[in-house]
Amino acid sequence: DTSRELVKRDLKNLVILDRIDNPAAIAELKAINPKVTVTFYPYDVTAPLTETTKLLKTIFAQLKTVDVLINGAGILDDHQIERTIAVNFTGLVNTTTAILDFWDKRKGGPGGVICNIGSVTGFNAIYQVPVYSASKAAVVSFTQSIAKLANVTGVTAFTVNPGITKTTLVHKF
User: What molecular functions are annotated in GO for this chain (predicted)?
Assistant: First the structure.
């Protein structure tokens, strides 16, 4: 839904990083606004920081500039503790850290905007999913810390913290 809304705007490029290649979804986005170049790269958010940096180098080499990063990966499965933390928090930290190397004004970067997807559970934990809630609280705290550096780095950071949404995330809840 976020990508659908983004392509309706005056964008030049939309780059989607996901572990699942969905050509039908990419075609749908291209059809909404043929003026926007929509590109897909396979990416697992749990990849190590070095792999994330390598992929971003490829993307920046192709596009020259990237203005906004939306970190939207997430799982809700407290039976998979390590994976929940890896996807919901560690991967987000790695992606944010990697793009900061390209954007940080102290390193000659242009600045940028990071939108990390948190959850209302980051503020009000749900006792049935303590690991998920804690991982989203970590997202909120991490993003607040990065946001406080905006005057130094030129990178604005914020979280969007939705409540329960109608996605596959809640199928096992």
Answer: alcohol dehydrogenase (NAD+) activity
